[in-house]
Design brief:
Blueprint (H helix, E strand, L loop, with lengths): L2 E6 L9 H8 L3 E8 L11 H20 L5 E4 L2 H12 L3 E5 L4 H15 L4 E5 L21 H9 L52 H13 L5 H4 L12 H5 L5 H9 L8 H23 L22 H9 L5 H13 L4 H14 L4 H11 L5 H12 L14 H8 L4 H6 L8 H4 L6 H7 L11 H13 L6
Parallel strand pairs: 1-2, 1-4, 2-3, 4-5
Helix pairs in contact: 5-10, 10-15, 12-13, 13-15, 14-15
The protein binds flavin-adenine dinucleotide (FAD).
């Protein structure tokens, strides 16, 4: 039986894996390969938290392959050279992979496809990550979409309820002598003298295909009911927490949609389901934008902001934001949730991003960079869009003058202060009435929370006004 290489990247699953299916369909024995080449994704090589996740996700994939009689061949180095070596070692006749959409990955993959095809190899790429690939939907005038609602109206019609294929129970064994590295050789996890900053992550997460499936099952049985309203409350289990699993392709959006549409929902839950699907739509829209406007990972999408007067970051204030020591509890709780779990609730992401880009008036890149390193779901398309949306510089963004009030957000979405108390234990004994803006009750803070900053690093009202003035300034008016 002739061989085909299956080049795994961010499609770390066996079910609904079109690259694997295509090789099997053609009658090839698939050889599963992972090549570690972070430099090829520069300047967006994976951050520390996603690397820690990747370590476990690769282990899970290898275990799933072994349970079927196969195994993951791990290599490190230039992807093209490693693939060429593997082709020579296995006499593989074909190479399959599932597509990525970031600018650096597209450039590399195009080069590899051209190079290997010209030498007579069958090289095929497939769609495993998106419901609608960026070039398959366009506006009436043939342009890419820049506004979410019409994008989703179009893309939504393409969703299908049919369950995608599952993987066979047995896979052929790769050649016994085919050598590879151990996953631990890739040194993806934090190692001494670095502290194990990820130690707390794994009580919240189970990387890998089985963990993704469990997350989806739990969501469909539970939080899906009431999602539209409850998803705004950060102290509740009210969203799917599928984002890192989707990022690494441990589950596909097709699988999620098929499960959602394949179920009969009570009429009262239909609005929740539609809203959940539209959030998957935002993921699609982010990829659509990044594909068509690849410069936006670094630059404002809205060019009118090119003259905007961002403030020069004060390193102490930036560090206070990163560490959850700004003195504004809802901001600090979010940044600590991120630090302890590698994830942050969406509403709080918007609040901390607004605080950084509007109250501190720092360029959104400072925030996007920190998220890139600390989120387990750090994803170039979603992160770029999330930051540009909140900063007001994006395509379909919140206008710059809409500035989140962290006090009002805490009062409305964490009214009992459960989220703040969970992540800021030093405020645990403060009464509810003091939790959104403790600096307004300095005596209480001195007595009950002496370790917490006595006032915010920036005056919320004055900084809001300064942001609005900068926004409407003569040179910078967007
Ligand atoms: P659910 O509410 O259960 O939504 C289901 C899925 O839809 C998510 O898993 C995600 O894949 C997608 N989704 C939901 N909301 C959005 C959104 N606003 N934009 C794009 N896709 C969305 N998401 C990431 O996956 N990676 C990031 O790096 C990232 N950075 C962000 C940065 C900022 C400043 C902001 C405001 C948002 C960011 N998001 C990012 C989007 C969103 O916060 C997360 O996708 C969501 O919180 C993940 O939780 P969940 O899986 O429980 O979401």
């Amino acid at each position: 039986m002739s061989h085909a290489l299956i080049w795994f990247r961010r499609d770390l699953r066996l079910d609904d894996n079109p690259a694997l299916e295509a090789a099997l369909r053609a009658g090839h024995a698939p050889i599963p390969v992972y090549i570690h080449a972070p430099d090829e994704e520069a300047p967006w090589a994976p951050g520390a938290a996603t690397n820690a996740w990747l370590h476990r996700s690769l282990q899970a994939l290898d275990a799933d392959l072994r349970a079927r009689g196969s195994r993951l061949i791990v290599r490190r180095g230039d992807s093209l050279s490693e693939l060429e070596k593997l082709i020579a070692e296995t006499r593989a006749e074909a190479l399959h992979w599932n597509r990525l959409y970031e600018p650096a990955s597209i450039a590399r993959d195009t080069r590899i496809k051209q190079g290997l095809k010209s030498r007579g190899l069958t090289v095929e790429s497939h769609n495993a990550a998106l419901l609608v690939e960026p070039w398959t939907v366009q506006t009436g005038s043939g342009d890419p979409y820049r506004v979410f609602t019409p994008f989703w109206k179009n893309a939504r019609t393409r969703l299908v309820a049919a369950a995608p294929p599952t993987a066979p129970a047995r896979l052929p064994e790769p050649p016994v002598l085919l050598a590879g590295l151990g996953i631990e050789d890739l040194k993806l996890e934090p190692a001494p003298p670095e502290p194990r900053w990820d130690a707390g992550f794994w009580q919240h997460w189970q990387p890998g295909e089985a963990g993704a499936r469990e997350m989806l099952d739990a969501f469909l049985d539970g939080a899906a009911h009431g999602y539209k309203e409850q998803r705004n409350y950060p102290d509740r289990i009210a969203t799917s927490k599928l984002s890192p699993h989707l990022h690494f392709g441990e589950i596909s959006p097709r699988q999620v949609v098929a499960r959602v549409l394949g179920q009969v929902w009570p009429a009262a839950v239909q609005g929740d389901i539609d809203h959940f699907l539209s959030e998957l739509g935002w993921r699609e829209f982010s990829h659509h934008l990044l594909f068509h406007l690849p410069h936006t990972a670094q630059e404002n999408l809205n060019p009118k902001f090119s003259e905007f007067r961002w403030a020069k970051p004060d390193p102490a204030h930036l560090a206070a934001w990163q560490r959850g020591r700004t003195g504004v509890p809802i901001v600090d709780a979010g940044m600590r949730e991120l630090w302890h779990t590698g994830w942050m609730h969406n509403r709080v992401r918007m609040v901390v991003a607004s605080f950084l880009t509007k109250n501190l008036r720092y360029h959104w890149k400072h925030g996007a960079d920190w998220f890139w390193d600390t989120l387990v779901d750090a994803d170039l398309a979603n992160n770029t869009q999330g930051w540009q949306w909140t900063a007001g510089t994006g395509a379909d963004a919140a206008p710059y003058f809409r500035i989140f009030s962290p006090i009002a957000q805490a009062q409305k979405f964490d009214p009992a202060g459960k989220y703040i108390r969970r992540w800021l234990p030093e405020l645990a004994t403060l009464p509810e009435s003091a939790l959104a803006a403790p600096w307004e009750q300095p005596d209480l803070v001195r007595r009950l929370a002496p370790g917490y900053p006595s006032r915010p690093i920036v005056d919320l009202k004055a900084s809001r006004e300064a942001a609005l003035a900068a926004y409407s300034g003569p040179k910078s008016k967007p």
